[in-house]
Write a structure and sequence with these properties.
Jelly Rolls, Serine Threonine Protein Phosphatase 5, Tetratricopeptide repeat, 404 residues, four-stranded antiparallel β-sheet, cNMP-bd_dom_sf, 3 domains, 58% helix, alpha+beta
């Protein structure tokens, strides 16, 4: 109450210098309530106005003292008119506060411009990306040397070779491979992309998938079928896989049943995680490219009970033990292998880890850090809505199960 009385006194003091409530205006009830420091009454009065009348109040705010405008900003925030509050704050030069309110209002381009004026280039870039202004986002990411974000933007701008070069420099082989898949058959550097994809798959021990990819690529056009470099690589892979001397044409196209029998890769495992169950294809691909492959030695702590969660870990190879704690007397709760995932809750909720996880063997995994995931949510609005909806549903099911 003391704070409210002080605001009222300031407004009344200004009134003594010549300021008064706008006469006959639609917002008179709002201004009178503010004069009396009755903020809740002012909020309700503002909410009862029509859109045209609310616009008039915003226009009237230009003729009242700064203290009254600040009090009106508080009213607009409580009334959930985030766009109106952002406009008033922008007029006062409070761009960072205005940007956050523009985001709450869903006005992402306005938010991006406000973040930029506030000197928050990383937040401006994320807002531009989320708004679909990818070229502007790319420009800012380049200035910040944010290469992962640059690569994501380049992929979304359908510039896969540039994205692949960045992923190669970062050492993200799976992301480079996914980017190169976006090079169309008619692209003048298609052969280069195909050969690089084959090399990446071969290096990962997936020579059979490389052979399938190459065989399919050679069927894309007459030029591709006659290409001597592609033919030489095709024959090399056939010999490498022990499929005769590589001269038979029977291997030109791999059988569908054999293609389908290949072990699921990290993308398939990521796709199987429940909170990603409603993601559209391109959104899921973007998330997959954001993940980083990590190698964890045998008998190493993967997640420490009580420590803050660091993000999602999807097991590709090897096994881990999940225990009630780190001590020798701890109870082993589970043993997990390829396809299992850990830490998905820490992507959204910043809290301590509930179990202790240690590698039973050497492990290869995909990691999505909490920081990267928060950036993903900020730049993929539709995907964020779907993820939060499923997360909330799954959390409610867990609570219901515990209650039962």
């Amino acid at each position: 109450m003391a704070g409210a009385a002080k605001v009222s006194d300031l407004i009344l003091d200004e009134g003594a210098k010549g300021w008064s409530v706008p006469v006959g205006g639609p917002g008179r009830a709002v201004w009178e309530a503010l004069m009396q420091a009755a903020v809740d009454v002012a909020v309700r009065a503002y909410e009862d106005l029509s859109p045209v009348q609310r616009e008039r109040v915003l226009e009237e705010s230009g003729n009242v003292p700064a203290q009254a405008r600040s009090a009106l900003v508080d009213v607009l925030r409580r009334a959930r008119d985030f766009a109106g509050a952002a406009r008033l704050l922008e007029a006062q030069g409070a761009d960072a506060q205005a940007a956050a309110l523009h985001e709450q209002a869903g006005a992402l381009m306005l938010a991006a411009e406000a973040w930029l004026r506030a000197g928050e280039r990383a937040r401006a870039a994320a807002a531009f990306e989320s708004a679909g202004a990818l070229e502007r986002a790319l420009e800012l990411y380049r200035a910040l040397d944010a290469r992962e974000s640059m690569a994501q933007c380049l992929t979304r701008l359908q510039r896969p070779l540039e994205a692949a070069e960045l992923y190669h420099a970062l050492g993200y082989a799976h992301a480079e491979l996914e980017a190169l898949r976006g090079v169309p058959p008619e692209h003048p550097r298609r052969r280069e992309a195909v050969l690089r994809m084959c090399a990446l798959l071969d290096e990962q021990g997936e020579s059979w998938r490389a052979l399938v990819l190459l065989a399919d690529a050679r069927q894309e056009s007459a030029d591709a079928r006659a290409d001597e470099v592609l033919q030489a690589e095709h024959l090399r892979l056939l010999r490498h896989l022990g499929l005769g001397d590589g001269t038979s044409s029977s291997h030109e196209s791999a059988p569908v049943t054999e293609r389908a029998s290949a072990a699921p890769d990290g993308y398939e495992y990521l796709k199987a995680i429940p909170i990603f169950g409603e993601l559209a294809l391109e959104d899921l691909k973007d998330l997959f490219r954001m993940a980083q492959q990590v190698a964890i030695p045998e008998d190493t702590t993967v997640l420490e009970k009580g420590a803050r969660g660091t993000g999602l870990l999807v097991l590709l190879e090897g096994t881990v033990d999940v225990s009630s704690g780190p001590g020798l007397d701890a109870r082993r709760l589970n043993t997990l292998g390829p396809g299992a995932w850990l830490g998905e809750i820490s992507l959204i909720l910043d809290g301590p880890t509930s179990a202790h996880v240690r590698s039973r063997s050497a492990v290869r995994a995909l990691r999505v850090t909490r920081a990267d995931f928060q950036h993903y949510l900020a730049t993929h609005e539709a995907a964020a809505l779907r993820i939060y909806r499923l997360f909330t549903h799954n959390l409610a099911e867990r609570v219901r199960a515990l209650s039962a």
